[in-house]
Design goal:
metal-binding; transmembrane; Four Helix Bundle (Hemerythrin (Met), subunit A); 220 residues
């Protein structure tokens, strides 16, 4: 029940925040900030967050096979990475024209580090298609998880910038921050629970047998 509530809450918050941001950024005259925010929220927040959720979804598994769930997970990850790259590239070009660095702020630094971690997760995901290894699997999952956390932090810091203050009042910014925090906690908690479960399943059975023998000896 706890996992079901977490997943539903995460889906709802991810979609709700994305809808609010897209509605605001799609009609802006400020093309550089608007495009950057649009591509970033779609790719690096919604797609990345959903890619973490769908792979272990309790309800999608009843309609879609495991292979198709993994394929959906991969597609969301690649689309998120591509959209994020477009958003970062668009903003970087604008910043370079006015000779202003983009990655010296908390927002920019967290966004860049998160993007690189997601890129690493996608690359390690392709490697997992060829062969399965516990260490690689854990690295892949942790890179995706940490990448999403950093990207969520980047969005949190973005709500302190002039763009957000121009477009929303303080009350709406406050609720966007709370929603972003709640979405991050929901996604991370759900993925962490699934990661712990999967690690247990991937561990060699001999380890558990060895532990069982030790426990039996202690009881004796």
């Amino acid at each position: 029940l706890y996992r079901i509530i977490l997943e539903l809450l995460a889906h709802i918050l991810l979609i709700a925040i994305t809808v609010v941001m897209v509605k605001k950024t799609s009609g802006l005259d400020d093309h550089s900030s608007g495009q950057h925010a649009l591509y970033a929220i779609l790719g690096l927040f919604l797609c990345v967050g959903e890619s973490l959720l769908v792979c272990h979804s309790w309800w999608l598994g009843d309609f879609i096979s495991e292979n198709r769930l993994n394929l959906l997970h991969m597609v969301l990850g690649m689309v998120g990475l591509w959209l994020g790259l477009v958003g970062i590239f668009a903003k970087s070009i604008f910043k370079s024209k006015i000779h202003e660095p983009h990655f010296n702020s908390k927002h920019g630094l967290c966004g860049l580090l998160g993007f690189l971690l997601i890129a690493g997760a996608v690359a390690s995901g392709f490697a997992l298609v060829c062969f399965t290894h516990l260490a690689l699997h854990v690295i892949h999952r942790l890179m995706g998880l940490c990448g999403f956390v950093l990207l969520s932090c980047s969005q949190w810091f973005a709500l302190n910038l002039g763009f957000a203050r121009r477009e929303w009042n303080s009350w709406k910014i406050k609720w966007l921050r709370i929603s972003t925090l709640a979405a991050t906690i929901s996604v991370v908690s759900y993925e962490f629970l699934c990661l712990c479960r999967d690690i247990v399943h991937l561990l060699p059975k001999s380890w558990f047998k060895a532990i069982g023998l030790k426990i039996d000896r202690l009881h004796n």
